[in-house]
Amino acid sequence: MKYLSTRGDVTPRGFSDILLEGLAPDGGLYLPASYPRIDAATLARWRGLRYADLAFEILSLYIADIPAADLKRLCEATYTEAIFGTPQITPLKKLDDGLFLQALSNGPTLAFKDMAMQLLGHLFEYELARRGEELKILGPTSGDTGSAAESAMRGKRGVRVVILSPKGRMSPFQQAQMFSLTDANIHNIAIEGVFDDCQDIVKAVSNDLKFKRRYKIGTVNSINWARLLAQVVYYFAGYFHATKSNDEKVSFAVPSGNFGNICAGHVARRMGLPIHKLVLATNENDVLDEFFRTGTYRVRASAETHETSSPSMDISKASNFERFVFDLLGHDSAAAVRTRELFGAALARDGGFTLRPAEFAAAAGFGFVSGRSTHADRLATIRSTFERCGVMIDTHTADGLKVARAHQEAGVPMIVLETALAAKFAATIVEATGREPQRPAALRGIESLPKRYTVMAADARAVQRYIETHCAA
Ligand SMILES: *Cc1c(COP(=O)(O)O)cnc(C)c1O
Hints:
With about 475 residues, this protein is α/β, with parallel strands linked by helices. About 45% of the residues lie in helices and about 15% in strands. The mean pLDDT is about 95. The structure holds pyridoxal-5'-phosphate (PLP).
């Protein structure tokens, strides 16, 4: 399997070549040259597999440059009951007839990002050892991504993680999750500023190409293809849990921000998984809902981006969306020319674009529908789910469930992806139900653990000096 860029660079690259990369050199995103189609016999065989074996089968179709025995070992090491809480890894919880939650948030940081990030930790360690290289991952976080990355990379050889977070702006729980890690390869820097300051510093350091090369700086952001690929697996697992035979269809509802999670569902559907609808849910930041209703993609300015009670979906620009548009336009060289025009020139010039009617008409064939949810919807959905089903859901999952109900169809099971546990967003849960959400035993009392972090002004040079003195190769 070779990979190409959504903007036309067709230099042949294998999985290992793009594993540690961000954007393609032409500014596009990497995608496989084509999606492998799963035939009926294969789908029937996969139905009986354990999660780790299913992951191995799916990853094998996209990874030609890691020996099978090694890849199998990495999958086995990642998807264990010890890390994800149950032998099924992503079990379904029934809410109503035909309506299910798929548990994706029982990993170490209580959000679905662990599903992919834990695998990435093993893949990075493996690939860096194979090359005899080291890598420093520098990233900004407002909470979830940073803790998922640190949890996945802690103790891994060849990798150091430096995460910048806005000082005092994460919840006490999130601070405790990150700052209590004592592994030597984990570095937390609390920046005196807001999330945007952290992001600007990472950009400034990454744009200093000499520094970047000398200190081998990389990222693990949501455009990483390996992360997306790891997420494809749980769509298959969810389908098998919800159905008895492969002539049935299911729909998935996905709380969306950067379009990473639902893009994995799109890939699963392209591979032939019988998915009826992919239901995209946004919060008040409804860039993507607007696109699927109108064909217009309009990026918002930071000032237009609302701070909501489902903060991991507060995005103004969906970084993975370009992958879908490239597929919508035909996944070929003509599509690459048009994608380059839309996501390069048009976005820079007009802050967005509107697809031609014939281009947008194709979207219906890809199974997408969408909707949006507000703070009031979240509260009502959390409350009614607790009262009627005895299940506490988090605010992001509530957005998914609210929109899912509007798109339910008789005879088609609807699976709502649970993207975080309620315990992570306790304040809103208390507002909705009057009760504190339960926290998994392993995380009780983490706020009182000793914390290790460095406070720094919002100054890229200071961060560079920190890397020079603390992370020298
Ligand atoms: C990251 C995140 C999302 C959004 O996922 P995307 O892949 O960016 O669409 C939704 N919910 C939670 C809890 C998250 O952490």
